[in-house]
């Protein structure tokens, strides 16, 4: 008897209309027909010969085509024994031993960084994301990096408004004088000042978009990420809020700067005290499997959730908002994408969040 076995690094996500097959080793995903999911489930318990015996000639040809496809794509292999006896499945457990994974700050005065440095160390935060509504000077960028010299912080990502003094020399100086900045984005830049090369230590991007904290939460194919760490986190926890903490422009400590609930202000509350609040972690373990519509979506484990902006249609028994993200235009029941901001079913939520200016005119 011959058996088809999926490689342990292959994750199948069943949606209402299609399935997504994710190769967690190659970091790629592919959409496939829903009927393939049923076949793979059948192949887990029955031999290829037994399955083929149950179908007519035409169906056998289809099944064989699917098997050839799966083998060609290296999603699995043929064995003479069943999967259960010899090939252990991949564990989908997620382990992150840090108290918090990253801190997001809407930064205006960089002096706040010295104030929170000890908390950042105590909470074992590895990544810092900084968004600034104004343009950061080269001296400020250097001070940001130098503030965390000899720190356990591993990386800093910065979003800063572009200004005319930023040129290749500016970037080269940062490249030579900083150690922790790993991603640098300059927004409101009509045209890049020079051609970005790959010879910088950090990633560099110039964008014409006017980025704001309210810009987050948009669901798009461009943002999907088949990364085993991100996927396993999404399987077990909330893919946006798990082990995250933020400080908004007024100093309020929140799960996300766009969410309404504050757990104190950094002027008189430490990050440790805010984290200890009984409600701080309430969304940490809310997975896409529990969110309306998302639970039927084939993209749910490679997509980042948003609890700051939702359609405001459902809550669960614990009072958590389990509504579909507002800025998602995908319908898993039809397999079609639409512009989210023009959907009449979202008008009430759009008005609630004061996002009327985002609605595109036809």
Describe the model.
The protein has 362 residues and is of the alpha/beta class. Helix content is 24%, strand content 18%. The protein has 10 helices and 14 strands. It has helices spanning 34-43, 48-52, 57-72, 83-86, 111-122, 138-147, 168-177, 228-236, 271-275, 347-352, and strands spanning 3-6, 10-14, 18-23, 28-33, 76-79, 102-107, 127-132, 155-161, 181-187, 203-206, 244-247, 253-254, 330-331, 336-337. The chain has a 7-stranded mixed beta sheet. A hairpin with a 4-residue loop joins β3 and β4. The longest helix has 16 residues, at 57-72. The protein is globular and about 70 Å long. The N and C termini lie far apart (60 Å).
Distinctive features:
362 residues, alpha/beta, seven-stranded mixed β-sheet, three-stranded antiparallel β-sheet, 14 strands, globular, GRASP-with-SPASM, Grasp-with-spasm system SPASM domain peptide maturase
Order of helices and strands: EEEEHHHEHEHEHEHEEHEEHEEH
Provide a count of the helices. 10
The low-pLDDT segments are none
Helix content: 10-25%
Task: Assess the beta-strand content as a share of residues.
Answer: 15-25%
Characterize the biggest β-sheet. 7 strands, mixed
The pLDDT mean sits at 93
What is the tally of beta strands?
A: 14
Specify Rg, calculated over alpha carbons: 24 Å
Distance between the termini: 60 Å
Helices and strands: which structural class?
alpha/beta
For the largest sheet, list the strands in their spatial order.
Answer: 10-9-8-7-6-11-12
Tell me, briefly, the overall form. Answer: globular
